[in-house]
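The record is passed on directly below:
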Amino acid sequence: MDAYDEGSNARHGPDAPRRPAPPAQRGAPADSVAPDVSPGPPEPEVHPGPEPEPVASPAPVASPAPPEPVTSPAPGASAEPVASPAPPGSWPPGEPRTGIAALSPRYQVGVALALAVVAIGVCVHIGMTFLHVAPANTVTRAHGEAVDDWIYPEFEQNWKLFAPNPLQQNISIQVRAGVRGPDGMTQTTGWYDLSAEDGRAIDGNLLPSHTQQNELRRAWDFFVATHDSENRPVGLRGSLSESYLRRIMVLRLDRDDAVRAATGGSGVIERVQVRSRTSNVPPPEWSREKVSTTPSYRELPWWRVPQDEARGGVR
């Protein structure tokens, strides 16, 4: 074989390597791509003389591919720019904006102000509710009227269930009416237990209405809280509680079939009277406590029904 052959495995001098050097050592340009050819085993050195007998070479063993060399840029060649990651606060280009980010800056400021107003309103309401249900303190003594104006009547709270001494009485509200018939005579009906009617409507009902559960009870609690033991109003909300309770009585009697039957369905309610029946809850059988279960009554005076309210009464 010619020593000056330009083949890949030919010797080019006494100190030449037996196989080509990797591309990184030959100083190839950065943009030139060397073919990915795994070097094979070197051929035996050839000397002039008698040709040796052919020897079967062993089967080539697949060697793992060498790691891809990192090519360094050639001297004088400019390095390619590397794309830097986008800053954390920037919106990706080409992606549509949604939500508040899609609004103009002016509308974004408006939304932020609206959210701030809502948050302030919620904080004020929670603070007023807390002061209303909290024990008497310096703040409630100084600003109790402002707290009551905020709470009553829509946001009134009743925490008697969690009080140290919960209610241990059964209170039922009863009403009777004076009805004027077609002949001009006034007839007084018997007592109707409205609380018992609500109890029968709730019993067995999976989804009872709010009026059946709380309307009558809360109206009576409102009246008791604004009147003394002689049924005289205390404060400015006394007359409001009377009119509220009276309107409920007229509406309930208007829907009561028993009143319609007693008056023939052609009478008009002129006046109503309300009373409460209170009885203690009997103690359990294992308790030694002795409690009287005799009911006590609290009768209110007759209230004359105005004409605008009587129109909603029994006819």
